[in-house]
Design a protein that fits this description.
heterodimer; A: mainly alpha; 14 helices; about 0% strand; B: alpha/beta; Rossmann fold; 3 domains; six-stranded mixed beta sheet; 17 helices; ABC_transp_permease (chain A); cell membrane (chain A)
Chain lengths: ~350, ~500
């Protein structure tokens, strides 16, 4: 019979269609420009002094060392959660539960830093490693369900996020609460276990270098190793990968566990570098924002770094704008929604043109 | 109007796909109260003709008339409105829903306020079942039904609106003889009730038993429209295969077989519904030999290749690649043992659509330490890709182009560049030249012959008989999951092989 039929697109492929390689930089820039334009319009409509508000929003992160450092400290966490989402996407999985893995890793790091004896740097490194391990453990059940039973990870990772947030709340309340504090938080961790700060007096810290290092390692892994090539092929087209002898199940499992480990590590960096104790519900959705950052960065590790800085500056700028005008911080969430819409819709349009 | 106007008239239907004319000025008449068989080889244009009837494709020329009135069919819904129902070869049923729910899926009977009218749906299914003696329980879950019963659900679905013409696409392919008998009873019931039935089939004996008239297509043209009473199976086979029309085929030399390299013994494969697709198959391919598997599509060839390549797990049996048992193991096991696989579904399994040509080729050579270890050296990777691109004549601007951008011929050459450059001991290829132009076809065939002459064992599966006849040193014919004939030594005629492919004895 005449064979004019294209291979049927599976839901997973449709879902990941936005992530197919493309001359992505231009599309990301267009999306960012359109998103900022929309923000400008919203600011113009709400603000009494639109120019001052927009100035604070766009340039708030670059006015002094403190703002710049604060921006970098946020970008650090976003970069690591962004890399977490990116490696998941590359392997063909949508880890939407970075937030939960971040909480699990964060509390783990805080507990290790509080209770482990020994020299500060050793405790610090152990805390970060433990955070990554627990992050990987937190995604293990959704990952195994996906790989061996085909249960969609979008639902299970999201559900496990709420479990993580509530379990950490319980653990802090029951075992680790700071008796000195009225808030639900652990005692402050010893200063010698902190990630060393930079750009004082801001919260920027060595976690930044860790994020850059991780991005470099991931770039090298994806472009230059055999395993990286296999992982990319599994993510793009598992049926092909399997046929050329790649164990797509184990590769996908590895990619998902790495994604969980990175999100857990981001939680550890947030505790040791930023907050210096575990506070109940401390994360302003760093884990979820990692998905946005990964998409803006087009899943390229260095693109993720750039997107993290951009997004960090928008978050810092929005805080600064909130203090000088009547435009609320929530503008960032509108912008986030717009960016995701714009970037993923470009993927859809390309599919339509196929 | 001496005789009654035909129920369906298709006049001068023409459909082109680019340079290919799939259907070329074909006429088809179906009268009320007859079973009309539509015959032809794969690619003869049957499916395209039916797709035009159902509005899945728009003909470039021609006219469709229902009871004498010209109609425009711009989609399956329009077809249903004109009283045309279709039973597809591959069932489209939701296993967890009941029979009645499946029948009305997408055109549910509704009550006020958008509530489902389950009672009306059940009643309609029961009534149809009763009227035509189809015998299905409206409340049974589809997943609990046998294949034959699932097909009856498909038939009822096709009839659920007021249908006057029913088209069945190879309905007996999945049925047991008893179920086939029962289907024919049902079809006779339809005809008696004044419906028209179009039956697409490859089984000539069945056609001769059930059909009243027959239309034969070959290469997109109608070559015959006869009353079944006036022809016999032999004549039909001639019409389908076109014995009187020797095809232009290139003559390739013969090989000199050596030791066995691919050995398949007692292979059984079932599909997910438990239908046995391969029933105890044995075959051996020797070094320096091309064995061709001829057969009409859907007789187990695809499953055979998938079992050898490790994509499909066989129910029982042994598969040895260069002496290594690989049955039931992952694709990697067969590849390590020395298998190259050129799959039928090129864009799903043969290449990574959204990866550059480099990745597509190099993934077959990751064991090569000279590419750099532990880190791949980009210059060496690129050089390997460029060397193979040149050797396999892949026409591409540079190795970084996505496979998606390649034409069919270049894409297939890229697949060969990955698979054959590994100097495999066994090559299994399925429809390797489908959709390729003449030059690319010859290139692919030359590669297979050269590797045969180098000492590789080649298993070539194709539904294109001329391809098999021109390349194979030995020919096996598959029919309903079994090898029903073997031709070694002198090359058989297309007609001799074609008879076996159609299920007739030699």
């Amino acid at each position: 019979m005449t064979d004019t039929t294209a291979p049927a697109a599976s839901p997973a492929r449709a879902r990941l269609s936005a992530l197919r390689p493309s001359p992505g930089l231009r599309q990301s820039l267009i999306a960012i420009a359109l998103g900022l334009l929309a923000s400008l319009i919203i600011i113009a409509v709400i603000a009494d002094e639109p120019m001052a508000a927009f100035r604070a929003f766009a340039l708030g992160s670059f006015e002094d060392v403190y703002s710049f450092g604060t921006m970098l400290s946020i970008a650090t966490i976003l970069a690591i959660t962004g890399l977490s989402s990116a490696i998941g996407f590359k392997a063909g999985a949508f880890n939407i539960g970075g937030e939960g893995q971040l909480y699990a890793g964060g509390l783990t790091a805080a507990v290790v830093a509080l209770y482990m004896p020994g020299p500060g740097p050793v405790v610090m490194v152990t805390a970060l490693v433990a955070a990554a391990v627990v992050g990987a453990a937190w995604i293990a059940i959704p990952a195994l369900l996906r790989v061996y039973f085909g249960v969609t990870e979008i639902v299970t990772t999201l559900m496990s996020t709420y479990i993580a947030i509530d379990v950490t709340t319980y653990l802090v309340k029951a075992y680790f609460k700071d008796p000195q504090s009225g808030a639900l938080e652990t005692p402050p961790i010893p200063q010698e276990t902190w990630l060393p700060g930079i750009l004082s007096p801001s919260n920027a810290n060595y976690g930044l270098f860790l994020a850059v290092l991780l991005a470099g390692a991931m770039a090298l892994f994806l472009a230059r190793t055999r395993l990286g090539l296999r992982l990319r092929l599994v993510g793009l087209q598992p049926s092909f990968a399997e046929n050329v002898g790649i164990a797509s199940d184990r590769t996908l499992l590895g990619g998902m566990l790495t994604s969980g480990a990175l999100a857990g590590l981001a939680g550890g960096v947030a505790i040791l570098g930023l907050t210096h104790n575990f506070i109940d519900s401390f994360s302003p959705q760093f884990g979820f924002l990692g998905i946005t950052v990964a998409l803006i960065g087009r899943l390229s590790p260095f693109g993720v770094l750039a997107a993290a800085v951009l997004y960090g500056s928008l978050m810092t700028g929005a805080t600064s704008m909130q203090s000088v005008s009547d435009v609320p911080f929530a503008l960032v969430f509108i912008l986030q929604g717009l960016l995701i819409l714009l970037i993923t819709s470009q993927g859809i349009r390309r599919r339509g043109a196929m | 109007m001496k005789q009654t106007t035909p129920l369906l008239e298709m006049r001068g239907i023409t459909k082109r796909f680019g340079p290919l004319t799939a259907v070329d000025g074909v006429d088809l008449d179906v009268r009320a109260g007859e079973v009309h068989a539509l015959l032809g080889e794969n690619g003869a244009g049957k499916s395209t003709l039916m797709n035009c009837l159902f509005g899945l494709q728009q003909p470039d020329a021609g006219e469709i008339r229902i009871e004498g009135t010209p109609v425009r069919v711009d989609g399956p819904r329009a077809a249903l409105r004109h009283g045309i129902g279709m039973v597809h070869q591959h069932f489209k049923l939701v296993p967890s829903l009941t029979v009645a729910e499946n029948v009305f899926l997408g055109h549910e009977r509704m009550r006020a306020f958008g509530f489902l009218d389950r009672a009306a749906q059940r009643a309609r299914v029961a009534e149809l079942s009763e009227r035509y003696g189809i015998g299905v329980d409206p409340d049974a879950k589809v997943k609990d039904l046998s294949v034959g019963a699932q097909q009856r659900v498909e038939i009822i679905r096709a009839l659920s609106e007021d249908v006057r013409l029913l088209v069945l696409d190879e309905p007996t392919a999945v049925l047991t003889p008893q179920e086939t008998e029962r289907l024919f009873e049902t079809l006779r019931g339809f005809v008696a009730a004044g419906l028209g039935v179009v039956l697409i089939s490859h089984h000539l004996s069945e056609v001769c038993r059930i059909a009243d008239r027959v239309t034969v297509l070959r290469h997109g043209r109608r070559v015959a429209a006869e009353r079944v009473a006036d022809v016999d199976e032999h004549r039909l086979a001639e019409l389908i295969v076109g014995k009187d029309l020797p095809r232009q085929t290139k003559e390739w030399g013969r090989g000199t077989p050596g030791a066995p390299k691919l050995e398949v013994h007692g292979l059984h494969v079932r599909d997910s519904r438990g239908v046995e697709l391969i029933k105890g198959l044995d075959l051996t391919v020797h070094a320096g030999e091309i064995v061709g598997i001829a057969g009409v599509a859907g007789n187990g060839q695809t499953e055979l290749v998938e079992a050898i390549a490790g994509i499909r797990r066989p129910g029982a049996g042994s598969i040895r690649v260069a002496g290594v048992e690989v049955a039931g193991r992952r694709p990697r096991a067969a590849r390590v043992a020395g298998l190259a696989h050129v799959p039928e579904d090129r864009n799903t399994r043969g290449l990574s659509v959204w990866s550059p040509v480099t990745d597509n080729i190099v993934v077959g050579h990751l064991d090569d330490r000279s590419l750099g270890r532990p880190l791949l050296k980009p210059a060496r990777v690129r050089r390997l890709a460029e060397r193979l691109i040149e050797r396999f004549d892949v026409r591409v601007a540079h190795p970084g182009v996505f496979a998606k951008r390649l034409s069919g011929g270049n894409a297939q050459k890229m697949v060969l560049a990955r698979e054959l450059s590994r100097e495999p001991e066994v090559i299994v290829c399925c429809e390797p030249v489908r959709g390729l132009d003449i030059a690319a076809t010859e290139f692919v065939h030359r590669q297979l012959v050269e590797h045969r002459d180098r000492g590789a064992a080649v298993l070539l599966v194709s539904t294109e008989l001329p391809e098999i006849l021109s390349l194979a040193d030995r020919i096996l014919v598959m029919f309903t999951g079994e090898v029903v004939g073997e031709f070694a030594g002198d090359r058989p005629s297309e007609f001799e092989v074609g008879r076996l492919m159609l299920g007739m004895s030699a």
